[in-house]
Design goal:
Blueprint lengths: L1 E2 L30 E3 L6 H16 L6 H10 L4 E6 L2 E11 L18 E9 L8 H14 L6 E6 L4 H6 L3 E5 L10 E6 L3 H6 L4
Parallel strand pairs: 1-5, 5-6
Antiparallel strand pairs: 2-3, 3-4, 4-5, 6-8, 7-8
Helix pairs in contact: 1-2
Length: 205
């Protein structure tokens, strides 16, 4: 499940290098913009953004704090956070799944032998929404997955109003998802992560 506005699919941003002082010496400042995998220490910041994004819409969160910690301990390489000057502004959390389609068990399980990456949640901090950050982060995340040798495709479930957003990100709809949360129904979507043509062009991953 994901919480964001349907924004145009944007090209990735280029990270700026640390600022230099007039004398040419590099200051010890935080990077202006940084993408990195999340750690369990980021769990509280993740949950604060997620809670604000989802509670007002659906009354619940896709992942609770203990579940966030669970996934960030088991598979931190399947997460990605966007930090601006050290502050988390957007994130994605995923885990591995070993079946063709998502089931209710996929909400809480990580299947280490799986080749499908289940994207549990994408959320953007309320102060930086409507800036295309969701699209940029998804682009970066898919690039990240392509460098993981076990990842073959990405799966997610979303509400109907978010289908156009994910289609712009390259996902295709597979039809109604088997998973339900309360009265909410979802569309299941997938994106190929690795193909022969891509592997030839990107053999350095």
């Amino acid at each position: 499940m994901s919480a964001l506005s349907a924004l145009p699919f944007l090209k990735p941003v280029h990270l700026r290098s640390p600022r230099s002082s007039p004398g040419g010496q590099r200051r010890h400042t935080l990077p202006a913009s940084e993408f990195r995998c999340l750690s369990p220490e980021d769990a509280v910041s993740v949950f604060e953004i997620e809670r604000e994004a989802f509670i007002s819409v659906s009354g619940d969160c896709p992942l609770h704090l203990d579940e966030i910690r669970h996934f960030l301990n088991l598979c931190p390489e399947l997460s990605l956070g966007w930090f601006e000057e050290g502050r988390l502004v957007a994130f994605i959390i995923g885990s591995l799944w070993d079946q063709e389609r998502l089931s209710q068990a996929a909400l809480t399980l990580h299947k280490p032998q799986g080749s499908a990456v289940h994207i549990h949640v994408l959320a953007v901090h309320r102060t930086v929404r409507q800036q295309g950050k969701g699209s940029i982060l998804m682009w970066r995340y898919l690039q990240h997955l392509r460098c993981l040798p076990f990842a073959r495709r990405a799966l997610l479930m979303c509400e109907h109003f978010l289908v156009p957003f994910y289609q712009k990100c390259g996902f295709e709809a597979l039809g109604p998802c088997q998973v339900t949360v309360g009265e909410l129904a979802f569309v299941e979507m997938q994106h190929p992560v690795r193909g022969h043509a891509f592997m030839r062009r990107n053999s350095g991953c």
